[in-house]
Amino acid sequence: MPEHVELERVKHKGMQIILVGTAHISDKSIELVRETIAKEKPDVVGVELDSQRYTQLKSGRKWQEMNLFSVVRSGKTYLLLVNLLLSSIQRRFGESVGVKPGSEMLAAIDAAEKAHARVFLLDRDITITMKRAMASMGFLEKLKLFFGVLMSFFGFGETVDAEKVEELKNKDLLTELMGELSREMPGTKKALVDERDLFIANRILSSGAKKIVAVVGLGHLHGIKRFLDRKRDISELLTVPGKRNYLSLVKYLVPALFVAMVVLAYYLKGSEYVLDLFVVWIAVNSFFSALGALLARAHWKSILAALVSAPITSLHPALAAGWVAGLVELRVRCPRVRDFESLNRLEKLSDFYKNRVTHILLVAAFTNAGSIIGTFIALSIAASMFQ
Question: What is the pTM assigned to this prediction?
Answer without folding.
Answer: 0.63
